[in-house]
Automatic annotation (TrEMBL):
Residues 39-90 form the Exocyst complex component Sec10 N-terminal domain. GO terms for cellular component: exocyst. PANTHER family: EXOCYST COMPLEX COMPONENT 5, SEC10. Keywords: Coiled coil, Exocytosis, Transport. GO terms for biological process: exocytosis; Golgi to plasma membrane transport. It comes from Phyllostomus discolor (pale spear-nosed bat). This is Exocyst complex component 5. Residues 93-642 form the Exocyst complex component Sec10-like alpha-helical bundle domain. Belongs to the SEC10 family. Residues 50-88 form a coiled coil.
Length: 643
């Protein structure tokens, strides 16, 4: 076949073609050449060559047919495209003409040209509808270029806005398939933002209209469905839904701020959000405070019910209340105290629940309040916290705790008020933390700041006064218990034994029991308080402890051996005083220990001891009062040495 193809030359001449074939065939030449002419061989070559030519002809024919078919197809497509372009141009031309006619018709008087004007208006309307239909079809086919062409033509028609509406409507078909309408809306707007500039000459206006449509129709309907169902039946769920929906809507708005929506997109988006939530935000704070009050009351009531406790009325003005208030401020026995059975009526779980509810209310208030109303709304929430946490719970526990403190002369009294102090301190810290972390940011730049700080100060001062009263009366009870121990355990013969030579003990039984009791109370005070309050209370307790022992020792007469035993007792009390870690208390017991030396020192050394470092600055009457306690004080020799 390749050899056959080589025999063709341009221009083709049949005789020359045969001549070239003959010469190329061995034995085909009639002159020259080394081989003789062989007609059979030449005939055979002709037959084979003719077959090859037939095969070649068939192949070429098939190729020609294929090329003809392809050419016909391309010709049809080209003709169709030309036709479409022509049609497209006729639309543009027709649109241009009808647009001009429409403008001219506006100037013609109606009475003379009503028929003409009517026909122009009809044609204008028909053409406008055709263009919108063409745009709709192109959008469904995804033909951006065709959409752009039609939109450009419609730009000068009244129906251009309808074209935009069609685009916006079809953009949203199938856009909300997930469970998250806000995420769907964000994805939709991102997709449209990428293509709208390729279609419309005013893409920012079209995108803004899409967003407005999404907010005012889709989101507004969704929000209404979510809120109206629980608005009247479930305040807790309503507030949670409102906060969640408003937050997700503002988050969506933040994402949309990335797009070009015109000059003032912040105001535009804010108005859209307001249009959705305005009816819910107008009375938000009333719902919030109403729910918070009922929820807080329920938390407290559930706690007191669990304790099987019926709350007492505090401060109603009756005789019993008057007695209680007098007893709280004095140690007068105006009747039996209330037995709380060791219950403090303070619950950290209750406090955490109240603070958690208030924290959520502050968060909702921050998100849902108008900036101008925020400080005032936050203050209302704060007052509810004060009412239920500080007054109804803490203050009630303090009043009850005060009423439960026994009188100072009660025997074997159980002192639970320090447990109240401990828990109250913990609660104060939690209360103060929420005040600083969640309330302060909402009111820091408003006049409500000073009002909140003043209210907080008043509440804390009121409670500190009750705590101080309770601690003072508790310390009195402790001293009262120690008095009972000393009265029961200390005997006169302890310091004036009948047999001076048969005293084996190092300190008295009364001293042992008092020291054990004091150490227990010191530990309890340390566990119940924090910071400087520990030192303040321990110092007061230590001073009263010293006064008790001082006055107690003044009741007895001391022999020489009894004086030694008193010194041992005071040494033990001084060890106990070291646990206080208060310098003043230790100094008082050091001085008391030095005074006790006056009970045993030889008469000749009394003046020397009294002028010593620890006793030199004491009043002479104090020194004299201790010397008078000696059993040998009446002796002329002792009186002479001390005078």
């Amino acid at each position: 076949m390749a050899t056959t193809a080589e025999l063709f030359e341009e221009p083709f001449v049949a005789d020359e073609y045969i001549e070239r074939l003959v010469w190329r065939t061995p034995g085909g030449g009639s002159r020259g050449g080394s081989e003789a002419f062989d007609p059979k061989r030449l005939l055979e070559e002709f037959v084979n060559h003719i077959q090859e030519l037939q095969i070649m002809d068939e192949r070429i024919q098939r190729k020609v047919e294929k090329l003809e078919q392809q050419c016909q197809k391309e010709a049809k497509e080209f003709a169709k495209k030309v036709q479409e372009l022509q049609k497209s141009n006729q639309i543009k031309e027709a649109a241009d003409i009808i647009q001009k006619l429409h403008l001219i018709a506006q100037e013609l008087p109606f009475d003379r040209f009503s028929d003409v004007k009517s026909k122009i208006a009809s044609k204008y309307h028909d053409l406008e509808c055709q263009l919108i239909q063409e745009f709709t079809s192109a959008q469904r086919r995804g033909e951006i270029s065709r959409m752009r062409e039609v939109a450009a033509v419609l730009l000068h028609f009244k129906g251009y806005s309808h074209c935009v509406d069609v685009y916006i409507k079809q953009c949203q078909e199938g856009a909300y398939l997930r469970n998250d309408i806000f995420e769907d809306a964000a994805i939709l707007c991102q997709r449209v933002n990428k293509q709208v500039g390729d279609i419309f000459s005013n893409p920012e206006t079209v995108l803004a209209k899409l967003i407005q449509n999404v907010f005012e129709i889709k989101l507004q309907s969704f929000v209404k469905d979510q809120l109206e169902e629980c608005r009247k039946s479930d305040a807790e769920q309503y507030l949670k839904n409102l906060y969640d929906l408003y937050t997700r809507t503002t988050n969506l708005s933040s994402k949309l701020m990335e797009f070009n929506l015109g000059t003032d997109k912040q105001t535009f988006l804010t108005k859209l959000i307001k249009s959705i939530f305005i009816s819910y935000l107008e009375n938000y704070i009333e719902v919030e405070t109403g729910y918070l009050k009922s929820r807080s009351a329920m938390i407290l009531q559930r706690y007191y019910d669990s304790k099987n406790h019926q709350k007492r009325s505090i401060g109603t003005g009756g005789i019993q209340d008057l007695k209680e208030r007098i007893r709280q401020r004095t140690n007068l026995p105006l009747g039996p105290s209330i037995d709380t059975h060791g219950e403090t009526f303070l619950s950290q779980e209750v406090v955490v629940n109240l603070l958690q509810e208030t924290k959520q209310a502050f968060e909702r208030c921050h998100r849902l309040s108008d900036p101008s109303d925020l400080p005032r709304n936050a203050f209302r929430i704060f007052t509810i916290l004060v009412e239920f946490l500080c007054i109804e719970h803490i203050d009630y526990a303090l009043e009850t705790g005060l009423a439960g403190i026994p009188s100072s002369d009660s025997r074997n009294a159980n002192l639970y008020f320090l447990d109240v102090v401990q828990q109250a301190n913990t609660i104060f810290h939690l209360f103060d933390k929420q005040f600083n972390d969640h309330l302060m940011p909402l009111i820091s730049s408003s006049p409500k700041l000073s009002e909140c700080l003043q209210k907080k100060k008043e509440i804390i001062e009121q409670m500190e006064m009750k705590l101080d009263t309770g601690i003072d009366r508790t310390l009195n009870c402790m001293i009262g218990q120690m008095k009972h121990i000393l009265a029961a355990e200390q005997k006169k013969t302890d310091f004036k034994p009948e047999d001076e030579n048969n005293v084996l003990i190092q300190y008295t039984n009364a001293c042992v029991k008092v020291c054990a009791y004091v150490r227990k109370q010191v530990e309890k005070i340390k566990n119940s308080m924090d910071g400087k309050n520990v030192d303040t209370v321990l110092m007061e307790f230590g001073v009263r402890f010293h006064r008790l022992i001082y006055e107690h020792l003044q009741q007895y007469s001391y022999s020489c051996m009894g004086g030694m035993l008193a010194i041992c007792d005071v040494a033990e009390y001084r060890k106990c005083a070291k646990d206080f870690k208060i310098p003043l208390v230790l100094q008082l017991f050091d001085t008391l220990h030095a005074l006790c030396n006056l009970l045993v020192v030889a008469p000749d050394n009394l003046k020397q001891v009294c002028s010593g470092e620890q006793l030199a600055n004491l009043d002479k009457n104090i020194l004299h009062s201790f010397v008078q306690l000696r059993a040998d004080y009446r002796s002329a020799r002792l009186a002479r040495h001390f005078s």
